[in-house]
């Protein structure tokens, strides 16, 4: 697979003035009442890029939709089937419109959307806020926002991932606002995913351009640690560090997006993939961070261990909690961290996170995690599916590169 970064024409622009100006003028129409519940919890779905890159066809998308249903992923909450780059013809038609690739998507996106909708799922699509997309295989939407948004709506698209390549140095707020307004004007509820790589602090302005989620980092790869605190490529632990600082910006309808899941993704660009322990940690931390859960594996050929991770209802419930809080660390002892997410029922989700190379005992207390004072607490291990009772001390032996994910509440 060709590296997405290798084809990027990145032009980073200072946006301090543009952000101030745009936010002041942001139209009240964003987040209209009829769509105010769109992405009320972090979106869940699947995206083609991490495993397939440009090697996509309509048959692959149909088979994936089928597998999302038969594997139990749909019933677990995964709804969006998202086509990433390379789905369109290299150039626009005579009317200036995008067309699906004639050989790989011969039936067209409308027919594919109908198929996906008939499965009880929703269809997502991709383009870039530039002249070309990141893989440089198809036109971007820069200067064509209205016609492309209208086309997507007519096709029945439910989700747009809007990338940042070939942007001609135009301020991000201008480019992403244009598409946000164009999507709103269609009247169709379309989840708007701003994929700006976190370069110009989109968490500060993306809600004002109509976005429901925004990338906070550069691209993830199926590995634990690339050594890059910022910049391409990033591993699971690198992204946790960056995204974990932004909890105050997340809430219902507005989500920090630390990129797609690498659970079950392997042998991509020289990366063998995560171990099972790392995959559990990855899924746990994305869940406690209230991140969108967008799977990237080949769900048609999903081993049982990966299926169990991706469909763990107790962990997903933490991610999808109606309060919409993003969890954050309350203690960092270097390799050992304690993360807490407040939940709607008053309980706390707690991640005991061991980023080190050796197993370790990690401990906390009911007081430290902000639990309501009580004589005793019920502690649920969300991976072992077991209960324990404590007077306030909470502790677990956590494997290297692992997470013990708990739910703690006063015992009735």
UniProtKB/TrEMBL annotation:
It catalyses: Hydrolysis of terminal, non-reducing alpha-D-galactose residues in alpha-D-galactosides, including galactose oligosaccharides, galactomannans and galactolipids. GO terms for molecular function: alpha-galactosidase activity. Residues 1-26 form the signal peptide. It is an enzyme of class 3 (hydrolase). Its EC number is 3.2.1.22. One of its GO terms (biological process) is carbohydrate catabolic process. Keywords: Disulfide bond, Glycosidase, Hydrolase, Signal. Residues 333-408 form the Alpha galactosidase C-terminal domain. InterPro entries: Aldolase_TIM, GH, Glyco_hydro_27, Glyco_hydro_27/36_CS, Glyco_hydro_b, Melibiase_C. It holds the Pfam family Melibiase_2. Belongs to the glycosyl hydrolase 27 family. This is Alpha-galactosidase. It comes from Saccharopolyspora thermophila.
């Amino acid at each position: 697979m060709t590296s997405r970064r290798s084809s990027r024409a990145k032009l980073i622009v200072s946006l301090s003035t543009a952000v101030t100006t745009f936010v002041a003028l942001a139209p009240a129409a964003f987040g209209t009442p009829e769509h105010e519940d769109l992405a009320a919890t972090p979106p869940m779905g699947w995206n083609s890029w991490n495993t397939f890159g440009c090697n996509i066809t309509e048959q692959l998308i149909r088979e994936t939709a089928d597998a999302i249903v038969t594997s139990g992923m749909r019933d677990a909450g995964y709804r969006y089937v998202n086509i990433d780059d390379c789905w369109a013809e290299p150039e626009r038609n005579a009317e200036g419109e995008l067309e699906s690739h004639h050989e790989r998507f011969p039936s067209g996106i409308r027919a594919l959307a109908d198929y996906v909708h008939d499965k009880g799922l929703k269809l997502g699509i991709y383009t870039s806020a530039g002249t070309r997309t990141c893989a440089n295989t198809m036109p971007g939407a820069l200067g064509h926002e209205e016609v492309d948004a209208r086309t997507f709506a007519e096709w029945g698209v439910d989700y747009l991932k809007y990338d940042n390549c070939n942007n001609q140095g135009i301020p991000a707020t201008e480019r992403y606002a244009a598409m946000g307004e164009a999507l709103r004007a269609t009247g169709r509820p379309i989840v708007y995913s701003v994929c700006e790589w976190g370069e110009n602090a989109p968490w500060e302005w993306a809600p004002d351009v109509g976005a429901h989620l925004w990338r906070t980092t550069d691209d993830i790869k199926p590995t634990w640690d690339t050594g890059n605190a910022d910049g391409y490529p990033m591993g699971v632990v690198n992204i946790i560090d960056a995204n974990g600082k932004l909890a105050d910006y997340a809430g219902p309808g507005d989500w920090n997006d630390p990129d797609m899941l690498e659970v079950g993704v392997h042998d991509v660009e020289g990366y063998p993939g995560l171990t099972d322990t790392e995959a559990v940690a990855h899924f746990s931390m994305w869940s406690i961070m209230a991140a969108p859960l967008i799977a990237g594996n080949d769900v048609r050929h999903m081993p049982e261990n990966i299926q169990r991770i991706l469909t763990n209802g107790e962990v997903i419930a933490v991610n999808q909690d109606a309060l919409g809080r993003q969890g954050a660390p309350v203690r960092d002892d270097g390799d050992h961290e304690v993360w807490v997410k407040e939940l709607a029922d008053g309980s706390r989700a707690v991640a005991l996170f061991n980023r080190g190379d050796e197993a370790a005992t990690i401990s906390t207390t009911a007081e430290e995690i902000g639990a309501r004072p009580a004589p005793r607490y019920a502690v649920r291990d969300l991976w072992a599916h077991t209960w324990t009772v404590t007077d306030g001390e909470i502790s677990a032996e956590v494997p290297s590169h692992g997470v013990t994910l708990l739910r703690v509440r006063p015992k009735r």
